[in-house]
Amino acid sequence: MANTVIGSSIVIDGEISGDEDLVIQGTVKGKISLKESLYVEGSGVVEADIETQNVEIAGRVTGNIVASDKVELKTDCRVVGDIKAPRILIADGASFKGNVDMDMKER
Amino acid sequence: MATPKELSSSNNVNNTVVGPSILISGRLTGDEDLTVRGRVEGELTLSRTLIVEPSGVVKANVAVKNAIVSGVVVGNINATESVELTREGRMVGDIHAPRVIIVDGASFRGRVDMGDVEPGRLPAERPTVARPTTTARPTTTPARPAPPAARPTPPPPPARTAPPPAATRPAPAPAAPAARPGAKPMPPPPPPTRVEARPAPAPVEQATSAEPPSVLGAGAKKKVVVKKKAR
Lengths: 107, 231
Description:
The complex is a heterodimer of chains A (107) and B (231).
Chain A: E1 4-6, E2 11-18, E3 22-24, E4 27-34, E5 37-40, E6 45-57, E7 60-62, E8 65-73, E9 78-80, E10 83-84, E11 87-90, E12 95-97, E13 100-101
Chain B: H1 4-9, E1 16-18, E2 23-30, E3 34-36, E4 39-46, E5 49-52, E6 57-69, E7 72-74, E8 77-85, E9 90-92, E10 95-96, E11 99-102, E12 107-109, E13 112-113, H2 146-150, H3 165-168, H4 176-179, H5 202-209, H6 213-221
Parallel strand pairs in B: 1-3, 2-4, 3-5, 4-6, 5-6, 6-7, 6-8, 7-9, 8-10, 8-11, 9-12, 10-13
């Protein structure tokens, strides 16, 4: 299990940064910047700009996402915002509104 | 991994953990236990228990039901039930809670307010509330001579308004003092509770209290701190 978990009844209004995986089951507003993976679980609500390596979203995200590796939108997620990442996966059943940009440095 | 439902349905599980490399700055509110191993800055409001682990740093005004501090807290804690500073805990700020526990080894600077003292409350609980003040004490207090023996320190400054905790505590929280300039001098309000405070220089008191031989033995094993009633 990941080191950091934001539980379902927690509301954070502000900035989260760190070097480890983060699991969000609650609500985060503001900004998230990580060097590892972010998991927004089904109960998670994120209204924030996200900057990480990987993102997996099963909950709701409003905000722009920039990932250095991969963004994965899972079934039943709801995402509004722009996504920029070299790899973007959108599963059947996901709902998404925004721009997709996979045009990272190609090499 | 457990699903969110599994996690949130069991109330005894700490489902929120702030890992050691995580920094949260801003407002954090919630209805569940929170374990802090990283840093939280800003404001922290919980209807349950806050646990600050030894690696955790909280620079925030905290409002919780219970708080257990084994790490560092800079800021005020307002608890509806209890606040406990463990032996690894370091704190600068004011505590407002009906039950305050400060154990041997903890370091703390600030005020304690337990509210109205209930008539039925055990008087034995009161002395556990510590404030690191070395000057306000009766000469016969047996536990006193301990700190110099346990941790070699220069003699405390003669002026009793100086911040004496530094003399008796191992680590007066490096980041702390600047954060609360108002807390350095003794809090002004409670003159009646400090009746026993004496302006005499501390070395004199040490000499007098060292006279009975039994006193030294008793003091050697109790190196903690202080009693206080001020609020």
